[in-house]
Amino acid sequence: MNWTQKHDQFCLKNSIPPAAKLLWQWLTREGVGEEVEPDLSEFNTWVEKHRGKGYAHNYLKQMFNKLVEVRVVGTIKQYSWKIFKLIVRPLEWLFPRRKQKLHNPNSTYKTPTSNPDNSVKDDIQQQHILSNQQLMSEAGIYFDTQEKEVLKRPQFEIKAAIFLFRLRGAAEKIMNPEGWIRRCLQLEYWEHPSNYKAIVDILGNSKGLQYGNSIQDFFGGEHEQPI
After folding, report:
1. By the number of CB atoms within 10 A of the CB, which of 20, 83, 181, 201 ranks highest?
2. What is the pLDDT of residue 214?
3. CA-closest candidate to residue 198, choices 216, 186, 215
4. CA-wise closest residue to 55 among 44, 43, 46, 41
């Protein structure tokens, strides 16, 4: 089965994170519309080969459950946390059939046309949110896609917050990671002199940066502009 633009649209409409999307693509190679028995650990091995590290087991299970939730995957039997008998549904199964409407020749109503610019902007915003959500999840911090106050922040701020979160001992020492991250973003902890110094001391040499550089210089990359 070839991956199409309609698959991407379905992912955006249903807030499917990038990791779940990747898992869906991998599962389609196992078979579509027929019973298969994939091993999720094999998917993780493949991810590790190309990405450098696999997903945490809990996160991988969350991504699989997301595919089940949106009906992409139908589980038939579970042998363990990573091995299932399942069916990957064809894309056309996931869309409700449209009822044919009778044409009324006397009707003067015209359907308003959508603005393609708004559609593109919405897609970019959703991708930004999902990308930030995945960064957080990989650090053991979980925000729903509705948490837009957090997930719409520029990605360099998200990366800076995660860096400081790990520097403080991460979940081993911070009992409420989501609350801590929210506070960090609101108060911009990275601007505190001691935190900024720690960032420069740890990352300065490897990035060729020094005191005076902005936080965006240290954590810049793709999708940096606020939406």
Report:
1. 20
2. 86
3. 215
4. 44
